[in-house]
Design a protein that fits this description.
2 domains, eight-stranded antiparallel sheet, seven-stranded mixed sheet, 10 helices, about 25% strand, globular
Length: about 400
């Protein structure tokens, strides 16, 4: 929804009410949807500097950086809080978010406050005050929230038990609730916050299947406190990060037979053994009816290409960054591909073709708040050569996918 922001004297600016990004499967910072092709997240200066000085060879493996915006809280007449974005002058341009958007209403409802304290209602108490038209592009609340949901999600706990069925992946909404609570309690309501604008790398997919992998054998940044350093080292030692250089941080995979997303979170990923990690990769490529064998080769090819790029980046250390593997759970009908098998017809690149409709697989690096390199801001240590932990993780990931392919 487009809203007016006239808080700055003499400057009535048009703002955008941010929506929850419902395909966030991992991480702890809230990611918001700015428009159909753009997401935004709280600005961390070190990450901004990384995007602004990004090596050319890495651009195909990272979201496109689109600049920054200012964001502030706004309370409506019913006491609902929203996050409203105001584009900076260099980012000005047309933007519209439909007032019929179910995600906007969800965001308003999620951010209801109690007693003026700024705390959010528990999830079980959220109720929508009005009905909404079904949105074909969003996967939202379950039916007892009075929303039509085209795609549901089945959430499994760390032991594989079916914990709860919802019509959205709940991880992103948990991040939103925590972020909103933090903003309400730690800052004045009219405080301006800076956010990064980034490409929405799943916007072209009908049912985006996403695997979020925490890469490397070390997760703490150079500036971490001793307590934080010890905590991250313990998590790595107790997970596949230590033995494989990679662990699962989140996942959603579309099940075509049941027409819902199967979701896993970081707590599930931390408990996996090496064999459990292999089985989880297999599950990520299984649509409920068959194993998507045709995806193995393009995934491996892109991972090999990324490996070559990482090996060429001297001094870079991608501490605590993630790698996304993305594909569409909605297979294209063969007749739309001129009679060719989808694998033969689709260009296997990290970006879409000019039409954008035939891309099979995407590999993207994200989350660079703790990335360090020669010349980076607040550089604590200068490292020589490429990142050995990241390379170790990529090599093991490729090998496990090769083993799966041979087994199939």
């Amino acid at each position: 929804m487009v809203v007016q922001d006239s808080t700055d004297a003499g400057d009535a600016r048009v703002g955008v009410r941010l929506e929850p990004f419902l395909h966030q499967v991992g991480g702890h910072l809230s990611v918001m949807k700015y428009d159909e092709h753009t997401v935004c997240k709280p600005l961390i200066f070190q990450e901004q500097r990384f995007y602004e000085s990004l090596p050319l060879a890495m651009k195909r493996f990272t979201p496109q950086y689109k600049g920054t915006i200012t964001v502030h809280l706004q309370r409506d007449s019913r006491g609902h809080l929203s996050l409203v974005a105001t584009p900076l002058k260099e980012n000005r341009g047309p933007f519209k978010v439909s007032t019929e958007s179910a995600a906007v209403a969800l965001w308003q409802t999620l951010q209801q406050t109690t007693g003026g304290t700024g705390g959010a209602h528990p999830l079980a108490q959220w109720q929508l005050a009005h009905s909404l038209k079904e949105s074909p592009t969003t996967s939202l609340l379950r039916s007892d929230f009075h929303l039509n949901a085209p795609v549901s999600s089945l959430v499994e706990d760390a032991k594989g038990n079916q914990a709860e069925r919802r019509s959205f992946n709940p991880w992103g909404l948990q991040c939103h609730q925590a972020h909103l609570t933090r903003l309400c309690t730690e800052y004045p309501e009219n405080q301006r916050h800076r956010f990064l604008l980034l490409e929405n790398v799943v916007s072209r997919y009908k049912h985006p299947c996403i695997l979020d992998l925490k890469m490397g054998t070390r997760q703490h940044g150079d500036d971490a406190s001793e307590e934080k350093k010890a905590r991250h080292m313990r998590k790595c030692a107790q997970s596949t990060s230590a033995c494989l250089g990679v662990r699962i941080c989140g996942m959603q995979v579309y099940q075509v037979d049941k027409k819902h997303f199967l979701c896993k979170d970081k707590y599930y990923g931390r408990k996996l053994s090496i064999e459990g990690f292999r089985q989880a990769l297999h599950q990520f490529l299984h649509d409920g009816t068959r194993f998507r064998t045709e995806l193995l080769e393009p995934i491996q090819r892109q991972l090999q290409a990324l490996l070559s790029v990482i090996r060429s980046q001297s001094s870079y250390r991608f501490y605590s960054s993630s790698l996304l593997i993305i594909y569409d759970g909605q297979e294209l009908p063969e007749r739309t591909l001129g009679g060719l098998h989808p694998q033969e017809a689709a260009p296997q690149t990290a970006h879409s073709s000019s039409s954008g409709s035939l891309t099979k697989v995407d590999i993207r690096m994200i989350d660079f708040a703790h990335t360090t390199y020669k010349g980076s801001w607040n550089e604590h240590t200068t490292y020589d050569g490429p990142d050995p932990g990241y390379i170790f993780g990529l090599e093991n990931l490729i090998q496990i996918l090769q083993d799966i392919q041979e087994g199939e």
